[in-house]
Structure formats: structure tokens, C-alpha cells
Amino acid sequence: MSNCLSDLGRQEDAMMAIQEASVLYRTLAAERPAAYNASLAMSLNNMSTRLSDLGSPEEALTVIQEALDLYRILAAERPAAFNADLAISLSNMSNRLSDLGSQEEALTAIQEAVVLRRVLAVERPAAFNADLSVFLSNMSHRLSDLGSREEALMAIREAVELRRGLAAERPAAFNAKLARSLDDMSNRLSDLGRHGEALAAMQEGIAGVVTYGLQMLSRVNVGSTSSILLGSMVLD
Asked: Which SUPFAM superfamilies match (predicted)?
């Protein structure tokens, strides 16, 4: 419910909902930790995001740290079940640390998340390549923030290659994300003074978005024309 409210822009209501859920799960986890610690960790992870959305970065960091501690325990006991969730919490921890200017710690957290996600993506690429591309993009930003420009470029290049494959299979879901990654890669190339390559990356991103938009518009127009013709045949 909290996520749905957040999607609707009702951040305060979303915060109240996830706080209530966290209180309930904390009570249940105190009585039966084996059964409810995972649910408590998930609710804390979501509450951290809501706190960040509302401009409370210190509280958001405290909450994600608790979620991360729980996921580390869960993943140590059942890595196959919880390494994916641990990686997500590490990525969120990286974002919270970055929000507070702790860039070195933020980089350490996202690097650990990438390592975990990379293993999962090797085993199940269809399930985890999309998230790996997000983590690599975030790692590129953290590296860039710390002045590690070559490493930042390497990370975003890998993200771009993953998103090329994803966009080829599911353009509606990934073309916009590929364009964002190409824009990021353009920035990383520009940081290194490679302006010709930066321009080419930017142009590729723009061309991809325009091409996809025209394809969607064409489908809408064809569908509308077909509906009109079909309607005419029925009326006649």
C-alpha cells in the first residue's frame, strides 16, 4: 500500500502506511524472528526510501542500516533466498550515504551490491541483468563523484551493454533506460576529454528514443485507423 501511495505522490500517507507495517512486523519478529525478520527487513528498506523522499536523510540512513543488518543475517543463513534482497539494501544504503556526502562509504556499499548482483546475473541473467545494470550505473556515479573517471567509464559502459541487450528484447521497458545510460556514458567520456565519443553516445541515445517514439506513434495511428474502419463496417 505504501508503494502505491508513493506512486500517486502521496508521500506522507505512504510514510504512515509503511511505519504502521514496520511496527507490526517488529512485534511479530520479536516473537518469531525466523518467520518475520525478512518481512521486517523489507518494510524497513521501504521506510528508508519513504524517509528519503520526505527529506529526512539521517533517519533514512538509520533505518536502512537496520534493514541491512537483518538481511546480512538472513543471507548468511540462506544466501540463495536473500542475496538478491541484500544487494538491493546495499544499493539503497549507498544512495543514503551519498545523500549525506559519505562518498567513500557509498562506493564501498554499491561495489558490494554489484559483486552480489553479478553472481546472480551469471546464474539467472533474465531475472537479474536489469538490476545489475542499475547497480553499475549507480557505481559509475559514485566513482565519478570520487574522481575515478576511467573506472566510472568502465562501469557505465558495462551498464550500456547490458541495457542494449535488454532494449533489443523489450524496447518498451528499456529504451528510455538505455538512453539515460548513454547520456551518462556521454558525460563520463566528456569528463575524460573524449568529446567526439561523448557526442556519438548522446546522439545514439536521442536517436533511439526518437525512433521508438515514432514506432509507438505509428502503432497508435494504425490502431486508430483500423478502429474507425471497423466501426464503419459495423454501422453499414
From this structure: TPR-like
